[in-house]
Design a protein that fits this description.
The chain has 289 residues and is of the alpha/beta class. It has helices at residues 27-35, 44-53, 68-80, 100-109, 122-130, 147-159, 173-184, 208-217, 241-253, 258-269, 273-288; strands at residues 11-15, 38-41, 59-62, 85-87, 113-117, 137-142, 163-168, 190-194, 202-204, 224-228. Helix content is 44%, strand content 16%. The strands form 2 sheets. It has a 5-stranded parallel β-sheet with strand order 3-2-4-1-5, sandwiched between helices. Strands 6-7-10-8-9 form a 5-stranded mixed β-sheet. The chain is elongated and about 80 Å long.
Length: 289
């Protein structure tokens, strides 16, 4: 089987690097890191020693969320000069929940070829080890830290029927678990992965309640990936207005607007959103009398 010669000039290579165990670096990824002209990495101090151990003499350029917009023109110019460029992250596959997404988009728009060298990814590693359904899943990454956006995303997780993958920092882990407890209940399936592929790899579950009890006794340390089981679809009677009203009011108490509550119940029951919205407001008017 014939293979193209790599690295090729003017090509952006997205290179997956280990998320913990250095033995997970592929032979192809190691070769490209060694042979490319330039390597863009999150932190040159972190990745530099790793890159040099592979025998690479490539020029290193920092590329992170704080310099994305100013660095992209420089990287595109290098590609335009015929340099081969590898993008790596501190750990895992670049382009997922990091600035690599913007560079990849810009490179493609500028007409440059983009090739991904597959490698370890915390999201899929956690998913397949969780034992939760993998036939349909969604990636949430890091949730908004606070405010209305965070509440909205959490409410969406409450009724999400697919398995969901979430990243979280150790100092915010318990807060997230308690929020999930409040909206999903303690028996909702959940699998917390800690320090994947590393010496202290750990898996905690199988429910939200069990995970909270564990981390009350054990301070969260390291890198965390959370896999949340999908919500079980609840059957709501299509002919019981009181049940429909009660369900919408429960969403409103959790922070949803009347419009959002009507939309959610419309999705679950097949009723029109307009009908449900009017039902809710007729009930409000009735309660005021």
């Amino acid at each position: 089987m014939n293979h193209r010669i790599e690295p090729s000039p003017g090509v952006l290579y997205i290179v997956g690097t280990p998320i913990g165990n250095l033995g997970d670096l592929s032979k192809r990824a190691g070769m490209l890191i060694k042979e490319v002209s330039v390597i863009a990495c999150e932190d040159t101090r972190h990745s530099g020693p790793f890159i040099r151990r592979l025998g690479s003499k490539a020029n290193l350029l920092s590329f992170h969320r704080h310099n994305t917009q100013t660095r992209i023109p420089t990287l595109l110019a290098l590609l335009g000069e015929g340099k081969s460029l590898a993008l790596i992250s501190d750990a895992g596959l670049p382009g997922i929940c990091d600035p690599g997404e913007a560079l990849i988009c810009a490179a493609k728009e500028a007409g440059h070829e983009v090739i991904c060298i597959p490698g370890p990814c915390a999201a899929t590693t956690a998913l397949v080890t969780s034992g939760l359904p993998t036939n349909r899943f969604c990636f949430e990454g890091f949730l908004p830290i606070k405010g209305k956006e965070r509440k909205q995303r959490l409410m969406e997780l409450q009724t999400e029927q697919r398995t969901s993958i979430i990243y979280e920092a150790p100092h915010r882990l318990l807060k997230l678990l308690k929020e999930l407890l409040a909206i999903c209940g303690e028996q909702r399936a959940l699998h917390v992965c800690r320090e994947l592929t590393k010496i202290h790899e750990e898996h905690i579950g199988p429910t939200i309640g069990a995970a909270i009890e564990h981390f009350k006794e054990n301070k969260p340390l390291g890198e965390f990936t959370i896999v949340l089981g999908g919500a079980v679809k609840q059957k709501i009677s299509l002919s019981n207005p009181d049940q429909l009203i009660n369900k919408m009011q429960s969403f409103i108490k959790e922070g949803a607007s009347s419009n959002e509550a009507a939309r959610k119940i419309a999705q679950e029951t097949g009723h029109s959103k307009r009908f449900l919205y009017e039902l809710l407001h007729k009930n409000k008017a009735k309660e005021k009398k």
